[in-house]
Amino acid sequence: MMSFPANRRGFLIGSTAALCLPMSLPAGLRAQTSPAPVTAFVDVNVVPMDRERVQRGMTVLVRDGLIMSIAPAASAAPLPEGALRIEGHGALWLSPGLADMHNHCDSRQDMAVLLAQGVTTMLNMGEARNSFVGRLRLAIERGEVTGPRAFAALAVDGSPDYGHLVLRSEDDVRAAVRLAVTNRYDFLKVYNNLAPEVFAALVREGRAAGLPVVGHGVTKVGLAKQIESGQVLIAHAEEFFYTYFPPAREDDPNGAPPESAIADAVALLRRHGTTVVADLVTYRKLAEQWGRPEVVTGYLKQPEAGFVAPTQRALWPLSGYARRKGDLMRRYAFLETFVHAMQRAGVPLISGTDVSDIPGLVPGYALHENLRWLTQAGLSRFEALSTATRQAGEFIAKTKPGLAPFGTVTAGARADLLLTAANPLDDLRTLGAPRGVLAAGRWHDEAALSALLTDVADTYRHG
Questions:
Q1: pLDDT bucket at 202, cuts 50 / 70 / 90
Q2: Cα distance between residue 149 and residue 49, in whole Å
Q3: Distance of alpha carbon 455 from alpha carbon 64, whole angstroms
Q4: What is the C-alpha separation between 456 and 307, in angstroms, rounded?
Q5: The dihedral of CA 453, 454, 457, 463: what is its sign?
Q6: pLDDT single digits (tens) 385-444
Q7: 77, exposed or middle or buried, with CB in 10 Å at 0-12, 13-18, 19+?
């Protein structure tokens, strides 16, 4: 059996074999409809997410993938001929589609499950297959395949230890940036072992090419220097454990940093406007299964595990987490405090999940779980939902200018919308059972979303 190095979380890393699928897709994995000339949501309650408010009894018109207008249903103009009319009867709620801004999903099945769970935007944070970065993303953009709009980061490192593209000189950096531009990557993701001069060159060359730097803490640089140098996104809140906060004592390796260290980190982030992926679900899953094989067995029995590729599920019991010793819950509790402090201070936070690298994390479902853990950490439901809507849109607007805005239900925004039976500001769980999803102007009703999940489960069961 091939062996892999342990990463800084202390577990074994392996690659998952791709599930081979025919190019002819089941109907449920294709885009459900061609976009109507105009889509009209009539008499719906809008949760715009531009600020904490609700607009009741509205008609929302969508044309060419953008929101045209939002007006009270009672005074709305007659609908254009040929418009697709979706009735809310004053009882349904319209909010922005969700964004998972750190995952590793790259299959058609992943895309289908994400969309069925209301995820209309995602950022693949590295090691996506070339077929995804190029062909599949383009097919989604054209409406030929069902899935969220996908951004992609090219992951680079200074050694082959973690399986990433290795860069060891400034010449390597220039070559990698040219390839990233040619292949339509959106970001450069830095990993743990880069040399300081290579990191500096990545920031410089990436900025010139319109490829902002995101990613981990780099051991020989440190998050403070990375942030000051222009890294725009920290890929995990936990990265501050490794290259910013004081290290744990040798006699207490799973101990948490002192809470007194949080203020300086928050001030640094605020000063530079750096965004952080508040992925509590990621570290929570690590802590749950740390030293507990029975927890991983329980993950495999959960119904949603059927939406994870069999090759990936087979690796769950083999992961190193369950064989570790100690307890990570003190560190997880510290992360809750840290995330809450960042939120109170106005540090921009976005949601991510790290699916599918960690046992127990399922595309789409993990994002809903992350929102729940954010509220447990002290964020309001509006603040938690903002990390997966408005603040994700603001991050892309800042780093990739020129794209249509998204993350709010406002005129001129991209028409990525989620229709639910209840107000998500009262109960975030309603987002996990959408009555329909509009993605880039294409409507997928409840039956179509259910068919997506059925097709994926059938493919994995019989494929």
A1: very high
A2: 20
A3: 28
A4: 6
A5: negative
A6: 999 999 999 999 999 999 999 999 999 999 999 999 999 999 999 999 999 999 988 999
A7: exposed
- Its pTM stands at 0.93
Task: Kindly indicate the confidence band of residue 8, based on its pLDDT and cuts at 50, 70 and 90.
Answer: low
pLDDT of 287 reads 97
Q: How far apart are CA 28 and CA 280, in angstroms?
A: 32
Strand spans (E) along 17-166: 38-46, 55-63, 66-72, 84-87, 93-96, 98-103, 119-124, 149-157, 165-166
User: What would the two tokens of residue 209 be?
Assistant: 């090419």
Q: Which of 388, 383, 382 is nearest to 426 (CA)?
A: 382
**Whether the Cβ atoms of residue 14 and residue 358 lie closer than 8 Å to each other:** no
Largest CA distance in the chain: 72
CA angle 353, 104, 208 (to 5 degrees): 100
Q: Beta strand 66-72 with 55-63: parallel, antiparallel or unpaired? A: antiparallel
Q: Report pLDDT digits (tens) over 9-66.
A: 543 333 333 333 333 334 444 444 567 889 999 999 999 999 999 999 999 999 999 9
- Do residues 92 and 121 lie in contact, with contact meaning Cβ atoms separated by under 8 Å? no
Contacts of 69-77 with C-beta under 8 Å, sequence gap 24+, read 69/411, 70/46, 70/409, 70/410, 70/411, 73/42, 73/43, 76/42
CA distance 347 to 437: 30
pLDDT at 357: 76
Pairs from 247-251 (Cβ < 8 Å, separation ≥ 24): none
Let me know how many helices (H) and strands (E) the chain has, helices first. 16, 17
Name the one residue in this structure whose structure tokens are 């570790």.
324
Domain ranges of the chain: 97-401
Residue 162, C-beta contacts closer than 8 angstroms, at least 6 positions apart: 5, 7, 13, 191, 192, 193
d(CA 268, CA 193): 23
Pick the CATH number of 97-401 from 3.50.50.60, 1.20.1250.20, 3.20.20.140, 3.40.190.10: 3.20.20.140
